[in-house]
Amino acid sequence: MKKILILLTALICITNVETNAQDSLYLIGTITGESTEKQITNVKGIGDINGDGYDDFMVSSRTGKLVRDQGIVKLYLGASDGNLIPDITFHYPGADTLNYFGTASGIGDINNDSYDDFAITGLFADYSGYGKGKVFIYLGGSTIDTIPVKEFYEPLWIEDDFGYPTEAVGDINQDGYDDFIISSPYNWSNGRGYAYLFWGGDTISWARCDTISGDLFYPQSFANIGDINNDSFDDIAIGVIENPIYSDSGKVFIYYGGNQMNTQPDTIIINDSLSYDFGRIIKNAGDLNNDGIIDFFVLGGGYMSLYSGLYNHTSINVSLLGFGGFLNIEADLDINSDGYNDFVIGNTNYLRADSVWVGGIFIYLGSDVLDTVYNLKFEGETRGSEFSKIMSHSDINGDGYDELIVLSPSYPDFNNPKGKVYIYSYKRITDVKEGIKNTPNSFQLYQNYPNPFNPITKIKYAVPIVADALNASTTNILLKVYDVLGNEIATLVDGQKHPGIYEVELDGSNLSSGVYFYRLQVGNPSANSGRGYSETKKIILLK
């Protein structure tokens, strides 16, 4: 029987008095967008997709292009040194016009091969010129393929936001395969919202999908919330707003897991009027106080509701953490590796002491008794940078401490947004290798990716600080492409470069299939000054 819960609120105000603060969360690295045209737009932890024991994450950014290939997603594979050098770059797979890529999501191990899998949502314009969403599914493995194994979209709808969001929900029917949900929160064809629950298995298809919809059903968020009805199956919560334009009210629909799941909600949590936009974000919090019950958060407006099961509920006033702004929460992480789950609240409008809106994150460490006073606080760097708008976590160096990943998409300011990713760790790491704008130890030319390629490939190279540069801050770099006869085909780089890791693109659209070589040259390779360096690598173009 369906239950409707109207919850009266026990209100707890979170103060901004920092107690039990400790200098034990460190900024261990950053990733900064190259330019406004190449702004970083998203970041997401996706689990351990290559099975090496280190969690991985993905960073989305624009490319500056106006038609195709307007966005890219870079994969950062975890490593013991926590390096921040991207390993693989993903482009929109297909010939759809006006395509943009993309937003990554971890979706668990959907084919039960012991590797985590992931999805990337992209946008494209259909034949009528309207924007549509498309979700591409990628399987984890010892090697990662940039070609998806499946793609899903809804051809009947226009402007449907299909795939925003796409979320893992665990193994809801206990068949050994993780399941995931793709949302289509609204479309302009029939004005309805949809949630598509895809069941994991040896094959992933529309035939193995349950569709959830209804009147005034505009799904915004999803979460596995544990087994709240004690039937040994985990359950799902879906945050639903009732007005897709104003987002002024909402509900949380609870669906009980099982071998066969009902597409009608088993329980509905109704907003108690303390919060607008109720259900905009739902997060599994893990077991915050180790009482054996999975906790979960529902966020909306200036209030965050914490549920321990369905009937133990507390609302927390987070307005003191910043007036207005975009509220966010990251949960189900163990920052200090003490066995208790922790959570992080972010507000993009947090006011610094000098009354500048820089944004902030507020970290609450789990314990036997929930403490409503945050333990740690970090502020954004610059005004209007939207620090904390996007947060994720991932144990990228495999040390048992979850790293907190925070994005300021409008860094350094709203009128010149490049985007900046901040990575924090409770355990100090001293040898992190960062990406562009950071300092490698030596010159290096990396193998292009993909290789073989058609028609575009990426080439990375590293420029260190040169000890005898006589206070010069740049080094002259020459990167050229040659055919097998030694004829120069293209000059990719010819100029001064600051220390850092750089990536350039080689477009082989006008080249014939075959073997080519690319060569990085710095100064005079035969010189004794230490500034000379030369390296050549082979590439293969297959059309």
Question: What's the topology here?
Answer:
Blueprint lengths: L2 E4 L4 E3 L12 E7 L7 E8 L8 E7 L8 E6 L11 E3 L9 E9 L8 E9 L5 E8 L11 E3 L13 E5 L8 E6 L9 E5 L10 E5 L4 E7 L11 E6 L8 E6 L11 E4 L10 E6 L8 E6 L2 E6 L3 E6 L9 E7 L8 E6 L12 E5 L11 E4 L10 E5 L8 E6 L3 E2 L2 E2 L2 E6 L18 E2 L10 E8 L11 E9 L4 E10 L2 E8 L6 E9 L10 E9 L2
Parallel strand pairs: 1-19, 2-23
Antiparallel strand pairs: 3-32, 4-5, 5-6, 6-7, 8-9, 9-10, 10-11, 12-13, 13-14, 14-15, 16-17, 17-18, 18-19, 20-21, 21-22, 22-23, 24-25, 25-26, 26-27, 28-29, 29-32, 30-31, 33-34, 34-37, 35-36, 35-38, 38-39
List keywords for this structure.
0% helix, 5-stranded mixed sheet, 43% strand, single chain, Immunoglobulin-like, Methylamine Dehydrogenase, Chain H, mainly beta
Low-confidence stretches: 6-23, 429-438, 467-472, 525-531
State the distance separating the first and last CA atoms: 60 Å
Radius of gyration: 24 Å
Average pLDDT, all residues: 85
**What composes the largest sheet?**
5 strands, mixed
Number of domains: 2
Q: Which fold name is given in CATH as the topology of the largest domain?
A: Methylamine Dehydrogenase, Chain H
Percent range for helical residues? under 10%
Strand order of the largest sheet: 1-19-18-17-16
